Amino acid sequence: MSGIIRIISASLIVTLAACGGSGGSTGTYGTSSSGGIGGYGGGGDGGNQTPPPANTVNASASLAFSPSTLTVNAGDVVTFAFGSVAHNVAFDNPNAATPTDIGGLNTNTSIQRTFTTAGTYNYHCTIHPFMTGAVVVR
């Protein structure tokens, strides 16, 4: 029985060592050649990759904003991360406190907006109008 445990332990150690990576390139969130959005990009070999920014809304290839509602504090920065499918962000019912829309056909990039005033900011993608989301600022 102890022989089986040794074999399993050795296999586990080898597997973990292989997953750790060493000396590879440092990746960043959302910048891999395969679209990286929704995971760690950068094309590295698994070593030292940067986690996604806090308060990130992903505009996915499956035509949805995720999360659909994000709650932040006044003054927080929200990152809108666009993948391989073109999206944009237009705020519904804009007022003086509403951040600037993110127009255009955005792919494989991240754009930030600062939310300074409490309230609910509903938005949609003008390319895919059924894609909707909200940022709730407290």
What does this structure look like?
- The protein is α+β, with helices and mostly antiparallel strands.
- Helix content is 14%, strand content 33%.
- The protein is built from 1 helix and 9 strands; from the N terminus they run αβββββββββ.
- The strands form 2 sheets. A 5-stranded mixed β-sheet has the order 3-9-8-5-6, with no helix packed on it. A 4-stranded mixed β-sheet has the order 2-1-4-7, with no helix packed on it.
- A hairpin with a 5-residue loop joins strand 1 and strand 2 (65-66).
- The longest helix has 19 residues, at 2-20.
- It starts with a helix and ends with a strand.
- Mean pLDDT is 77; it is low at 7-46.
Element layout with pairings:
Elements: H1 2-20, E1 56-59, E2 65-66, E3 69-72, E4 76-82, E5 87-91, E6 102-106, E7 109-115, E8 119-124, E9 132-137
Parallel strand pairs: 1-4, 3-9
Antiparallel strand pairs: 1-2, 4-7, 5-6, 5-8, 8-9
Which terms summarize this structure?
alpha+beta, 4-stranded mixed sheet, globular, 138 residues
Q: What is the compact description of this entry?
A:
With 138 residues, the chain is α+β, with helices and mostly antiparallel strands. The chain has 1 helix and 9 strands, in the order H-E-E-E-E-E-E-E-E-E.
